[in-house]
Amino acid sequence: MLTIDRAYGKYSTYFQPPPLPNCRPPPRHEMLPCPHHARHLVISAATVAYTFGGAFNDYFEDPKKMQVFRQQPIFALTRMGYEALFHLQSTDASYLQSRLADFATKTTMDGNMGRGLSIGIHVRHGDRRPYEFQYKDSYIPNDIYLDEAREQLYKTFETSGKNGTEDLMSEMKSIFIVASDDPDVYSTSEFSHAMRAQEHISLASKTNSAPPKPLPSPRKFVEESVGWEGGFFAGMFWSLGKPSGSSATAAKEIDTSIPPSADALKLRELVGRAYLLDLAILGKSDRVVCTVSSMGCRLLAVMMGWENAIVKDHWKNVDGAFEWRGVEW
Q1: CB count in 10 Å sphere of residue 132
Q2: Exposed (0-12), middle (13-18) or buried (19+): which is 286, by Cβ within 10 Å?
Q3: Which of 154, 161, 162, 173 satisfies CB 3.0 to 4.6 Å to 116 for a cystine?
């Protein structure tokens, strides 16, 4: 949920936030989802399309620039929100620092004679389908991610060696770092030599889980394997913690009127922490390869920063000829 507070002034051209008032938060009855000129405007998933409509782009895009550079003001606003709100809990933050230090060690040459690249690859499956027409009912093949990652590697070190030759040592010290909402992606042949972004919180795959045990019954029923299959699906997430005897449509019909149990909240927290930790680690990579149709991919660009991701072109989309956009319809 996002709160835009208009009681203390409006964002300037460069989106510098107004100074925080030294007072209490506004009363709950003054925090409203509409109208847009409310003093304390609250935005949720249910009202985001209404609030961030075409008028939002018309107002915040830079009309003097072309292509993705029109999006720079929206990018700056998103970056400000990321810096204010993206904070890992203490144990995850400690793991993040140790993991980044481990990657830095792997990419640094002996005697500090140079270093390789860390190339992050974000593979989104589940209920997020690609923009590219030929893959709209499936997913972007793994080899397309890998080809782009290799292209970034070769382009960086093609002429950076001695006398303008290929820097093979730096290429050999480079690493590919993979993060995905689909656990089966890590075991594919394309990413067999890549490193997982993090192993602090891992989602179990059905194919890698322990074989199911037969239930004690004359008919020898076999209990279904439990695991995270095929990526992130909203229905699957909201069904976490529900009794196993739920109806077959429980994962599709989200009943928000029933408060979640403590176990359900713990399971959802683990999934959320794993996702955020993946993004936090990939966002520190030297290059990122992902699909712009995924919100996580667009967030990774924000985490890298405008100069690094857009100006230097270190953020690469493999889902069609689309550019970074802050708002998706």
Answers
A1: 17
A2: buried
A3: 173
pLDDT tens column, 226-271: 456 678 988 888 888 776 554 444 445 566 667 788 888 898 999 9
293, burial (CB in 10 Å: exposed 0-12, middle 13-18, buried 19+): buried
Q: Is the pTM of this model over 0.85?
A: no
**What is the C-alpha separation between 122 and 132, in angstroms, rounded?**
17
Give buried/exposed letters for 26-49 (b at 16+ CB in 10 A, else e).
Answer: eeeeeeeeeeeebebbbbeeeeee
Asked if 148 and 316 count as a contact pair (C-beta separation under 8 A), the reply is: yes
Dihedral angle of Cα 273, 279, 281, 287, to the nearest 10 degrees: 170
Distance CA 154, CA 287 (A): 12
**Residue 130 is which amino acid?**
P
